[in-house]
Amino acid sequence: MYIKLFSILILLTVGTSCIDRNQIDVTKIPQANSILKKIPTGLKFGETIYKSYVPIYSDLLLAHEKNHVALQGYVSIRNTNFTKPLYIEKITYYNTNGKFIREYLDQPIYLKPFSSYNITVKTNDLDGGSGAKFLVFYKLANNIPQHPLIEALFTGTFGTKAISFSSRAILLKKSTELVR
Questions:
Q1: CATH number (domain holding residue 167)
Q2: Domain that holds residue 89
Q3: To the nearest 10°, the Cα dihedral for 33, 39, 42, 46?
Q4: N or C: which end of the chain has fewer CB within 10 A?
Q5: How many domains is the chain built from?
Q6: Considering the domain boundaries, does residue 180 fall inside one?
Q7: pLDDT exceeds 90 at position 153
Q8: What is the per-residue pLDDT across 21-62, written as a single tens digit (0 to 9) for each?
Q9: Average per-residue pLDDT in the chain?
Q10: Hey, CA dihedral for 156, 157, 162, 163, is it positive or negative?
Q11: Are the C-beta atoms of residues 104 and 154 closer than 8 Å to each other?
Q12: Distance (Å, rounded) from C-alpha 18 to C-alpha 37?
């Protein structure tokens, strides 16, 4: 009987020690409320449209593993201006060969001052391939040259291993016309 009780105690101890201590309570994560419902009066956005290129990696070839690892991507567009919103005209997604895949906005949005807009590319979304990319088209409030910070974070697992890395957008050009 003592052996049975001791075995149960050991199993309970081992079982509770295997609980992932890095898990978070998702109910405590602030919900995104970063889009303005209406534009503040007196705010103007110039004619200049900026276009940023964000590299995305839907999968990664591991040479020593001789196979592909599917990755989840997380793109974050951060308004770095403390007082003015950021006008995001559109966000487009392209595959490795430069073929247009989809748009991520139904209509333009105004990102609140000092807030973020996030996009998730799910692990099972392999449409983009290892050379996928986003183009983010935006305008600056009152032509104040304070551009957003746009980054992407990638995570993936294979077997008992995990991989994560990030990439940062680059500003391609500015123009007065919106081109896909």
A1: 2.60.290.11
A2: 48-175
A3: 100
A4: N
A5: 1
A6: no
A7: yes
A8: 556 665 555 666 888 877 777 788 878 899 999 999 888 877
A9: 82
A10: negative
A11: no
A12: 45
